[in-house]
Amino acid sequence: MTVPAVTFHEYAAICAGIYNAAASCVAGFSRHSPLDQRLSGFQGAVYRRATGGSFEWVVAVAGTQPTDTGGADVIADAGFGGPAPGLLHPVLAVVAAAGSALLWHQISCAEDMVRGAQAAMGRQGRLTITGHSLGGGISQIVSARMGIPAVAISAPAVTAVPTVRSSWERTRSPITCLKVRNDPINATGVVGNLLGRVVPLDSPRTGGAAHSIDQTLAELAPSGPFSGLGARDPFAA
Fold it and tell me: pTM of the entire structure?
């Protein structure tokens, strides 16, 4: 039986919902596991939706939350820049090393969550991973390493992270990155690039507003200016 696709709008709704511990249901999906929150800043959950006798499973990873866990997410973001140059200022070198360690810990947490979802679902349906911002970067990396499809929204470039490019060249997992115009977080070409297919969202927003998952969700909604894109399957040609 064919399982209907999850749309861009539904992935955006899940990405927004993962920030809210009280949101156990979103876009027709129910949270299958308790929200997993770590001192490293990692936050994620597994969502499931019954569809025509089968199930659609989505692992969702939250993005940067600066006020949580002492700013660990902000440090993890530094890990996307790759190894620190040898002549980097000692303080910045320490931050880069800490960022790499935290980022890889969060990647490991997300991979554990994927393995847990795979064990729970068995042959019941289809599994993808998604995330916004930091979560979108982690989703790309987990997809590249584990071979599961990913939808990343307003995500950072990831190819400067060691082994990521070679992992994706090995798995060639389906990855779609929704890139909001003017969003400074998903700028590419300076520190690496996004993986997979890049789909532009030509929103007029700028600055921090361009990075807002809530505003992206509103624009992709049926009543929003980009409802046509919102209704699309991210993996369709």
Answer: 0.92
